[in-house]
Amino acid sequence: MLETSSPDIILVDLMLPHMSGLEFLEQAKKLLPRAEIAIMTGHASIETAVQAMRMGAYDYIEKPFRYRAVEATAPAHGRKSAPGGGEPVPA
Length: 91
Fold this sequence. Notes:
It is built from 3 helices and 3 strands. It is α/β, with parallel strands linked by helices. The model is unreliable at 79-91 (pLDDT under 50).
């Protein structure tokens, strides 16, 4: 899916069925270096938070969370350019 789309922001769980969220983060950053990727988890630890941030995650979100709390982080890391690639769009 990453090969055919170019999202600005990706929210991914740390625990995935076929790979970890950190493995996904690593692959996604190679394919989409400009995408902002946040890791969410119900199994938070300092170790995985630090690892995720060092790998390029822009946020590490502990579950349960409210949608508005996640939405509040998006403007600072939101769209980098207008649809079709123009000037940056304010969040």
